[in-house]
Predict the structure.
Amino acid sequence: MKHILFLLSVMLIWGCSLTQKKPSRNLEREDGWLWTVSWHPNKDQVVVGGTQDTLRLFSTTNYQLLNNYLFEGTITKVKWHPTKHKLAISMQGEKSKTSIFNLDSNKRIALDSINDFGARAIGWNKTGKLLAVGDYDGFLTFFDEDGKRIKKISTNQKSIIGLDWHPTKDLVVAVGDKISIYDFNTDAIYPIEDRKEDVLMLCVAWHPSGIFFVTGDYGDFDKNHPPLLQFWSFEGKNIKTIKHSTSEFRDLKWSEDGTLLATASEKIRLWDKQGNLISEKSSPDLLWGVDWNKTGSKLITTDKKGSIVVWDKQLNKLNELKY
């Protein structure tokens, strides 16, 4: 099936649709796709990463580049620790290592037991004492904050593309070719029946209340299956399905107060917690990463051409970060 093949070949095509011609590695590196962005929870800083072999750290006070850090391979996701100045970084590529990176000491801890091709899903729990990595073999691997492996669990998925921890419980929702909720304390896995069409799910986020979560998927335009934004109850019941985007949903994030959901696709869009579209703004290129600042007054996006844009919550463009 098309998106099962996508899951197996994603390392080679760097996230392109299976209907597209496979680009060369050099061409993609020229494009400079920025897959991911994370706004520091306690500092005026953001990090971005993608196909450029570089993690970039910016100030959000003056929007200046603070530092470049070499990471060979594609940085697929970055997540700040909730209280400390260190990052969880998932990577893909034969020479790359998913790792924990302390920016104060410049110490990097490579995480073991990850698929040889890498991973695309990573995240800390609320306290930062647990780190989950979802890899391209469908396993969730858990580490402590110092990188010591705790356990590795099969989710019975072909691949895990996105994950998110519940805001108060040690539950992880993981998405790929389906949805799985894993209870860290009991080792129970709860599969959720998602859309009947064979599509790849790319991103997931719990609402800050913990009552429901939202998923975004790839769709399949060859089969007339549009990308869907779907709201799910804690128990896994579909609450709402939205057919609005003309491109896949690459990323989505809630503001900390839970009033607005930002989604990255062919447009930056803001939704309320009932799934009503509040505002949208077109982007010249497909957006891949999105995140909010601590107060929810600003958000930042990255795209497949390497642009980094800061917006206010009315989606007025405030600045474009240069590097």
Observations:
- The chain has a mean pLDDT of 90.
- The helical segments are 2-13, 25-31.
- Residues 2-13 form the longest helix (12 residues).
